[in-house]
Specification:
- By secondary structure, the protein is an alpha+beta fold.
- It has one domain.
- The chain is 30% helix and 13% strand.
- It has seven helices and seven strands, in the order αββαββββααβααα.
- α1 packs across α6.
- The radius of gyration is 16 Å and the shape is globular.
- The protein starts with 45 loop residues before the first helix and ends with a helix.
Length: 220
């Protein structure tokens, strides 16, 4: 799940970035995700996201045998010298400065999990919203390496988030039944995004996870 790399927040207002048009999330989830208190747009209708949650398959989970982060190759090239991390940083930030070979040298980012702001991209860590280990035991262990690579570099759903390192580390590989963002005003959007990712990738949920997601949607 989390790694000391950089990537994108959810529901962050993307100011001055034409690349916002790239954020066409599937499964009925709005492209922007987490609110940072700066005027974020609304997410999918509660009834639609609730239907998606209801449709998720409940399972106690597959074995973790054989799991390794190396089975989810990332970060892959996205062209023009940029990798997945670079693309996310560019579109999630404000006044992002880019040097040679797509190196991000500056900008402004907000961690949606706790609302802290950063001007140094190196101060952020990457979070796979649905952790790689969680994906493994909820279906990804049955995938090809190419499918796992696509999941780990998913730029089309709210799966990659730049967040405060210590908060990211506290999350680890936990699902919403045991960990939620410290910023409670973002619980709704966190749940919406989790459901969107699991819906698109046809991943299962546990009973406790599904119940926690339903409770978080009450914040919407």
């Amino acid at each position: 799940m989390a790694q000391a790399d950089l990537v994108r927040p959810l529901r962050t207002v993307l100011v001055g970035l034409a690349t916002v048009a790239l954020l066409g999330f599937a499964a009925g989830c709005d492209p922007s995700t987490f609110s940072t208190g700066t005027g974020a747009t609304a997410g999918p209708a509660p009834s639609a996201i609730t239907q998606q949650l209801t449709a998720l398959t409940v399972s106690s989970g597959l074995s973790m045998a054989g799991y390794s982060r190396d089975k989810f190759p990332h970060w892959i090239s996205q062209g023009a010298g940029c990798d997945t991390r670079d693309v996310v940083l560019q579109r999630q930030g404000m006044v992002v400065q880019t040097g040679a070979k797509c190196k991000i040298t500056g900008g402004q980012w907000t961690s949606p999990y706790d609302g802290r702001s950063y001007s140094d991209p190196q101060a952020l860590q990457i979070d796979h919203l649905v952790p790689l280990a969680n994906a493994w035991k909820s279906g990804a262990s049955q995938w090809t390496t190419k499918q796992r690579q696509d999941f780990a570099n998913d730029l089309d759903r709210p799966q990659l988030i730049a967040v405060t390192g210590s908060v990211n580390e506290s999350k680890g590989d936990q699902d919403p039944s045991t960990w939620k963002p410290p910023a409670t005003d973002n619980w709704c959007h966190y749940a919406e995004s989790w459901i969107a990712v699991k819906t698109h990738w046809k991943l299962t949920v546990t009973t406790a996870e599904k119940s926690a997601l339903a409770d978080m949607l009450e914040k919407c």
